[in-house]
Amino acid sequence: MKYLDIPPLQRLNAFLKSVDVGEYVLMGDLEAYSCKLAGLDKKLSKSLDAEVQTGSSPLELSASPVGPLAESSSRKTLIYLILTMNHIYPDHDFSLLRAHHFQKEETVSKAEEAIDSHLLEVSKVWAKTPGLGESPFLECLWSSVDEAIFLKECDVYSYKSDLETDPFGDEASIWSFHYFFYNKKMKRILYFGCRAVSKQAADEATDTSSKYDRYNQDDTDDDSDRYGMATEMDV
């Protein structure tokens, strides 16, 4: 799958990476991908397709949240959902996910309503942020998403975290949501996931990250001094 560089989404994604809403910090990901497979994705797709066919129950083969798994189109949908998760969270392997880990939403509007209800406090922060609040957050969000994926043509799926084998179930998490907007005609999928994390845990994570960055920076500087002469000689 190929990450799609869409400026309006990048702007929103940068804002959503860490939003302090007072009681908690919201951490979000908003990214779109092409469903054209190549390289490792293509190889994994073939192995997943075989595993899904042989490992699914008769009931799943006839009906599942992504459609009858006896049909190749339904298996492709499941594989795209799995691969998208792998791309967005590369430190975790979602290859063991199956159709029952997902749910097909009744309508796009139902998904929009659920997302909007979680992001009311985020909208207030957006409005107060210089350079961002010229238009309402939710208006910017959905116009950008529609531009990227054309919502009227989408099927919407959600991932239900099992809180154990994914990155969303640590003790610091208060709530989370994970939606996939899949446009078969465009061969695109857009993922929008957010989780609320306690402020204390978020601060600790930031401190740890800062220390790690300083440690790496020191190592990099040392390595540059130590190996600078060799590099020059190589050149």
TrEMBL record:
Keyword annotations from UniProtKB, A to Z: Nucleus, Repressor, Transcription, Transcription regulation
Keyword Nucleus applies: yes
Highest taxon in the source lineage: Eukaryota
Stored Gene3D superfamilies: Repressor of RNA polymerase III transcription Maf1
Region of interest called Disordered, as start-end residue ranges on this chain: 202-235
Main location: nucleus
Matches recorded under Pfam families: Maf1
Single GO biological process annotation from the record: negative regulation of transcription by RNA polymerase III
Localization annotation: Nucleus
InterPro entries: Maf1 (IPR015257), Maf1_sf (IPR038564)
GO cellular component: nucleus
Single Gene Ontology MF annotation: RNA polymerase III core binding
Similarity remark: Belongs to the MAF1 family.
UniProt protein name: Repressor of RNA polymerase III transcription
Species in which this protein is naturally found: Chlamydomonas reinhardtii (Chlamydomonas smithii)
